[in-house]
Amino acid sequence: MQFKTTFPLSVIIILLLISLGMSSYTLASAQVTITSPKDFFGFTPGADRKLARWDRMVDYFYQLDKESEKIKVINMGPSTMGNPFLVLIISSPENLADLDRLQKINQTISDPRNVPEAKINKYIDEGKAVICQSMGLHATEVAGTQMTPEFTYDLLSRDDAETQRILDNVLFFMIPCFNPDGQIMVTDWYRETVGTEYEGLSLPWLYHTYAGHDNNRDGDYLNLQESTYAAQLMYVDWPPQAYIDHHQMGSYGARFYVPPYCEPIRPHADPLIWREISWYGAHIAYKLEEAGMKGVINNAMFPGWGHFGWHWITPFHNIAGMLTESASAKLATPLYIHPDQLKGGSRQFPEYEAQSTFPSPWPGGWWRLGDIVKQKIISARALLDLAAKNKETVLRNAYLKAKHQTGRGAEGDVNAIVIPADQHDYLTAVKMINTLMKSGIEVQKAQKSFSVNDRIFAENSYVIFLAQPKMGLIRNLLMETHYADNPWTRSRDDEPLRPYDLATHTMNEFMGVKAIPVLFNEKHDFNILEKTEKMSGRVSSEGQGYILDGRLNNSFKAVNILLDNDIDVQRLDKPFHHYRQGDFVIVSASEDMLSRVAQETGVDFKAVEKISENGIHTVKRGRLGMYRRYWGGNMDEGWTRLLLEQFNFPYESLRDAEIKKSNLKKKWDVIILPSDSPEMITGDFTERYRRWLSTDYPEKYKSGIGEKGVENLKEFVKEGGTLVTFGESYKFAVEKFDLKVENVMDAYERTEFFCPGSTIRVNFDNTHPLAYGMPGQGLVVYRSSPAFEIVPGRFNHKYETVVRYEEENLLKSGWLIGEDKLAEKAGMVCAQYGKGRIVIIGFRTQHRAQTDGTFKLLFNAVIQ
After folding, report:
1. Closest to 557 (Cα-Cα) out of 514, 601, 517
2. Which of 170, 298, 517, 625 could serve as 414's disulfide partner, Cβ 3.0–4.6 Å?
3. CB 375 within 8 A of CB 326
4. Does residue 576 share a domain with residue 658?
């Protein structure tokens, strides 16, 4: 007998579900259609030769936000180039409706000071594991962002027990694209080249407009817009218990690196961090093996002491910060790999053979974007799965890490760091304090003078007590640090192994700020800062003119603003009363203008009754150009652009065609060559260089100033121009201008001399105009840098040493082998050439816009 009805089939299904006791939420979910990535994009992201563009992905995530109650899309604001920076929160509808309460629980567990343990236990029971994962920080590593639509759809559309457990027990914060600008650049470039001989080549220029690949070296200084969003999310608003940053690596080794890191580890993290990272990593590796993924390695290749980017700095925020690295294809183009091309040869992975951390080697063959997407989805889900299954353990560990680190900070032989009000550059000290606060570090300020161990500190000094959860971060950023020198950091023949990045990241030393470790034996009444400090300068009236302190970096920003408004500025070449060489003088300007500049820059305009007529000159700001090449771009150039913009220096980027034009001096006064090899500057590649580049680009994206550009630069300097070279670019200057300067460090093997990113003591000749405003002694960041001797000859008088390394006791923080080889060598030389000069700076004077302590050595070359 056939059953007939006039009711629609959907109504019958709903009635049937009601009869079976289904909830209203389940009914609503059953009726909603979640748009799949394939239906939205017209292909499944990860498909061969296809890349979804960020603007369309943004549209897709907002579409999912409309269709599902399990996702909340947050636009943190515009990226550096104005594209949306999104954070997705994925969890159950009940959790998303209760975010305010869950955030309070999360923040209390992350900083449980003065909270009764009974309340903590209640919060652990009621709270949710907060997990963060980010993708696409390096834009040419395309798989991370490409996998996010499928992974998001997977979490929203599946209704199995595992997915429901994740949604119920986890608040998942996903940064689907850490670098939206680069994602768009790479996608457009790839689409332009698909089907041509250039298909699969990396972008010819930086894929972050300032930082390129270095955008993951900014988890501490927060110079980039994207970094400020991630810091606000993870360091302040929603500290996660675990975090993974998904990356890609080279194509010819293991297929996938997962946690834990190998040796050495950086000190001062809570031991639970390293145990958690191993715990999560083991589960991720297991799930990959379970799924049949071959070529997975852990506990190798990437050490626990790395740069202070996102996955390596988060352990010191008590977050189990981790990294995955997938072998790369050619962007979205498949790559065939022969078995004999697969190599080991990295840390704790000596050969491409099975080992306990690499039990199933991949045999070779075709490698596709889809393979990488699959790996990343499995690993990303595995982290959520383990956290969901062990929510209470995850939250209790967060509490214990915070509690234990606070206790260690209170009980050590140092329990506080004082940032004295008496600084060479007080405004840079305030800048540092504000950066630390953006990292969630508690800072206090003295409203009156105080003493510690018979040392008196003035009012407005800052105090950072170590008895807080981020004790390990504070110690690494603000206390002398020495890189591990042990069997993990040396080869079998005792050659030192280069750290993954720098040997130290001591912020105050980079920035030229005094930070004094102290032991408080009694309580003091300081104010906890609730918000970052406002740098607001003052204008004193009733004088013949105004003095600007030439020791302040921000004085150069103020001078640039004044010059932009056609206000004359002078500079002292001799001390005058209690003013110093290098101080700036403004004779005539409206108080309204000066007040606006003081408010913007924080500098004080101090009235002076009488201005010296001797030993003073009118400031001339050089018309500034900086060489900017292709071949993937130059990160040193990008960071320098950012620095110049931060301090309002007008400049123009000079491509090859501009430098190949004659009469450069008619347009420019100062030209900067960022750190680079002579081959990359000239385009005259040796065979070794051609093999290293291993690729070619369309003619319009090839670089090199050629012989014509070299001759034009020579003529530019002869006619009175200033050529500034950073780091390795000294070779170009020495070779092409026949300078009588030698890099004496070239003569030594690594076992004789080694200094891979350390702070080194120097003497600054602050009577020289290039070092005006500098202290007599200070620190520079030395990273396998050239150091110079002037070759004896007839023209010794044409060379001046502006910065010289100390005679002994050179190392402040980092790692230095062979101190005597560097002692008393020149770090910065100025050479006369015709009517002009060549300024050679060997050390990292503007490294990643982080070394505030030596910025003035560049600024003085432009403002003369």
Report:
1. 601
2. 517
3. yes
4. no
Q: How many domains are contained in the chain?
A: 4
Helix ranges restricted to H, 719-755: 730-737
Residues 641 and 746 in one domain: yes
Q: Is-above-0.85 flag for pTM?
A: yes
Residue 426 included in any domain: no
The C-alpha atoms of residue 298 and residue 358 are separated, in whole angstroms, by: 7
CATH of the domain at 189: 3.40.630.10
Residue 342 lies in a domain: yes
Quickly count: other Cβ atoms within 10 Å of residue 638's Cβ.
24
DSSP state of 236: I
pLDDT at 4 exceeding the cut of 50: no
In the prediction, which pLDDT does 24 show? 42
Give the CATH number for residue 662.
3.40.50.880
Structural domain of residue 561, as residue ranges?
Answer: 545-618
Bridge partners (DSSP) of residue 445 are 462, 527
Q: What is the mean pLDDT of the chain?
A: 95
DSSP-derived 3-state class of residue 757: strand
Please tell me the distance from the alpha carbon of residue 609 to that of residue 613, in angstroms, as a whole number. Answer: 13
Residues 361 and 371 in one domain: yes
Question: What is the C-alpha separation between 207 and 671, in angstroms, rounded?
Answer: 24
Q: What is the pLDDT of residue 453?
A: 87
Other beta carbons within 10 angstroms of residue 813's beta carbon come to 25
On whether both 145 and 180 belong to a single domain, the answer is: yes
Asked whether residue 433 is assigned to any structural domain, the reply reads no
The DSSP secondary structure of 727-755, one letter per residue, reads: GGGHHHHHHHHT-SEEEGGGG--TTT-B-
State the average pLDDT over residues 65-74.
98
Question: 42-59 pLDDT, tens per residue?
Answer: 999 999 999 999 999 999
Tokens (6 digits) for 835: 């009517």
Q: Which range among 258-272, 537-551, 594-608 shows the weakest confidence by mean pLDDT?
A: 537-551
Residue 374, both tokens: 């699959």
Name 78's Cβ contacts closer than 8 Å, sequence gap at least 6. Answer: 84, 85, 225
Nearest-10 Cα torsion for 85, 87, 88, 89? -160
Domain termination site, one of 598, 618, 638: 618
Query: Do 727 and 601 share a structural domain?
Result: no
Which class for 116: exposed (0-12), middle (13-18), buried (19 or more C-beta within 10 A)?
exposed
Q: Which of 389, 405, 421 is the last residue of a domain?
A: 405
Residue in the structure block whose two tokens are 């997977």: 154
Tokens read off for 407: 């206790």
3-17, 583-597, 640-654: range with highest mean pLDDT: 640-654
| Lowest-confidence pick of 244-258, 578-592, 616-630 | 578-592
Flag whether 479 is in a domain.
Answer: no
Rg (CA), the chain: 29
The DSSP string of 179-218 is: -HHHHHHHHHHHHHHTTSTTTTPPPSS-SSTTTGGGGGS-
What CA–CA distances, in Å, run from 857 to 456, 556, 725, 768?
Answer: 32, 12, 12, 10
SS3 (DSSP) at 695: coil
Q: The dihedral of CA 217, 221, 222, 223: what is its sign?
A: negative
With tokens 């004295």, the residue in question is 420
DSSP 382-450: HHHHHHHHTHHHHHHHHHHHHHHHHHHHHHSS--EEEE-S--TTHHHHHHHHHHHHHTT---EE-SS-E
Same-domain pairing of 159 and 217: yes
Cross-strand partners of 375 = none
The confidence score (pLDDT) of residue 701 equals: 93
Residues 466/518, Cβ–Cβ less than 8 Å: no
Q: Say yes or no to pLDDT of 790 above 80.
A: yes
Q: Examine the pLDDT at 700 and tell me if it is beyond 60.
A: yes
Rounded CA separation 699/352 (Å): 38
Q: Are residues 722 and 678 in the same domain?
A: yes
- The answer to whether residues 18 and 104 belong to one domain is no
What per-residue confidence (pLDDT) applies to 577?
A: 84
pLDDT at 31 (0 to 100):
52
Give the residue-averaged pLDDT of 446-470: 96
